[in-house]
Amino acid sequence: MPLTSPLCKKLGxxxxxxxxxxxxxxxxxxxxxxxxxxxxxxRSMPEEIADVARIMKEELGDLPFGIDxxxxxxxxxxxxxxxxxxxxxxxxxxxxxxxxEKYKVPAATKPTFFSSQIRSQQLFEDQLAATLESSAHSFxxxxxxxxxxxxxxxxxxxxxxxxxxxxxxxxxAKAAGVDxxxxxxxxxxxxxxxxxxxxLVPQVVDVADDIPVLAxxxxxxxxxxxxxxALGAQxxxxxxxxxxxxxxxLSEALLNKLLKADSxxxxxxxxxxxxxxRLIKSAWSDEWDSPDAPKPLKMPYQQVLxxxxxxxxxxxxxxxxxxxxxxxxxxxxxxLMTVDGIMQRLVGESEAALTAMNNKLxx
Length: 363
Ligand SMILES: Cc1cc2nc3c(=O)[nH]c(=O)nc-3n(C[C@H](O)[C@H](O)[C@H](O)COP(=O)(O)O)c2cc1C
Known about the structure:
With 363 residues, this protein is an alpha/beta fold. The protein has helices at residues 6-11, 24-32, 46-60, 81-86, 90-102, 113-116, 121-133, 147-155, 167-176, 197-208, 222-230, 252-260, 283-289, 301-315, 339-362, and strands at 17-21, 36-40, 66-69, 138-141, 159-164, 180-184, 190-191, 213-216, 235-238, 266-269, 277-280. It is built from 15 helices and eleven strands. The structure holds flavin mononucleotide. Flavin mononucleotide is lined by residues 20, 40, 42, 68, 70, 142, 163, 184, 187-190, 216-219, 237-241, 243, 324-327, 329.
């Protein structure tokens, strides 16, 4: 049975497989392999967003692609990162200094997004303006979703996606006029709510009514894709899958950790951003979970606190501490493949699973 859905025709894609990554090569490869790429731009400056969109348009021609941003509701107007860093609690600064010394983390030589920025309403507005003015076909929003933002995106001709983690978020997305709802369950890599994907998707489908729903969180095999359709979804949305791709070119220390991992090797932690976020387990998450650790700060201050050490850890591949957002689906990604190879595997498995399901029901 071919893997397709009405959304494929509507959006001009071959397979109902949507993917989010913060890496442009992954996104271009995903579109060429028949999926729908959504570039995660939450860690990108406005001018980078404009560049990414221009390059993707040049590479992909008429194939659609989206851009995803996140706007946490409680992020304020503060734009002075250095000033707010100096005001962070002493206990937290001491803890980060202790980790830096304990794991001998060298200073980063290059700035990163988080070591040079503080998330603020102004930064978000500039990111949004760059996204809406770009040639991206769609706009996706994750944490937080003022209805006004959806309206603006639609006025700019963008198809709108909203990631939701609870039925009441789906109600809000529907009221705001969102075109496609992504029901992202607890299994997912990244920021996540407490409802598991299997429980969440049918509830969101019921709320969404005639708005198409994508299932996200824990999708790593074609059997998940077949199951997503059985739950009422019209497609799937994956994030963890692409980390293990050749195109993503993760550092060796991080890649080795991910390829060896199974679902038990991920954990929900506040240590990344101050909000619950599923990460690969590491000395980083363990240290912040220890009884002596201070409670992570609220977003955006946790990343103001940790950006420099995290930049050093990533640049110098400090193996015990290195981490990334990673979902329970990591169990299905234990060898390095191209994005096209991952897509072919998922499509082949899905078609086999759909046929097997059909045969079982008919027998
Ligand atoms: C490394 C990584 C980074 C992510 N960053 C974002 C992001 O910036 N914005 C967003 O909406 N979702 C983000 N997510 C969540 C994905 O959009 C997606 O919902 C999730 O990965 C699906 O579950 P899976 O990880 O099991 O595939 C991220 C996920 C991962 C693994």
